[in-house]
Amino acid sequence: MRIDILTILPQLIESPLSDSIMQRAQNKGCIEIHLHDIRNYSVDKHNRVDDYQYGGGAGMVMSIEPIASLIDKLQQERSYDEVIYMSPDGDLLNQTMCNQLSLYKNLIILCGHYKGVDERIREHYITKEISIGSYVLSGGELAAAVLTDAITRLLPGVLNNETSALTDSFQDNLLSPPIYTRPPKFKDWEVPPILLSGNQSEIEKWRENKALERTKKRRPDLLD
Ligand code: SAH
User: Model confidence over 48-88: pLDDT tens digits?
Assistant: First the structure.
């Protein structure tokens, strides 16, 4: 899979994508991530990428030309499954969406700044708008990093044990059951004895029950 991230602050997104699982995924060739600085496509001699709002009002707007020429260039090179804009008024990101996006080959992710991008970019270039939650960030970079991470860990070969993404929360619409490791007793807090019993089918049943119990209590909406 290939993801092209369009931003005016590439340095903001480099670090979260260059460590741990994200780094391994790229080293193993499971994913290629390309960061593009929108500023390099500015049509202005001062390298500006924003301008005042028509109609007045506080806050700058990201200009149409640099973003359009960058997307045009990329689309001439290959075809993209989705051109995504990170935006607080987009579809709320969830695991089902990540699963779907992880099946694609090429994605563009556009990060906004200031008040956001000129609406004509959204109308004519963007095919999908995604929000990572009902709050406002200063820029789309952290949101793009969240989306890229959530997709990447689903790609075949990225996690050591491929089943481990399947047993995470939200797959099957259930939260994860509680987990424990050594020691079996700390202070007087004991690990549930069933987990030490070696009886795998009973352990699985216990985990399913706990997952259901936790989902009912914390996220009943997932069971609807
Ligand atoms: N004026 C906009 C907010 C702009 S915030 C509004 O009221 O809707 C600047 C940029 O940060 C946005 O263009 C978007 O790319 C990013 N952003 C902010 N909050 C976000 C969120 N919850 N999810 C995804 N991207 C977000």
Answer: 999 999 999 999 999 999 999 999 999 999 999 999 999 99
- Burial of 78 from C-beta contacts in 10 A (0-12 / 13-18 / 19+): exposed
189 and 90 in a common domain: no
Over the stretch 145-162, which tens digit does the pLDDT of each residue have?
A: 999 999 999 999 999 876
| Encoded tokens for 199 | 């009886």
- The residue written with tokens 């990060």 in the block is 111
Distance, CA 34 to ligand 1 centroid (Å)? 21
Q: Are residues 145 and 201 in the same domain?
A: no
Total domain count for the chain?
A: 2
In a domain, 157, yes or no: no
Could you tell me the distance, in angstroms and rounded to a whole number, from the CA of residue 188 to the centre of ligand 1?
47
Which protein residues are within 6 Å of ligand 1, measured from CB?
86-89, 111-113, 115-116, 131-133, 135-137, 139-140, 143
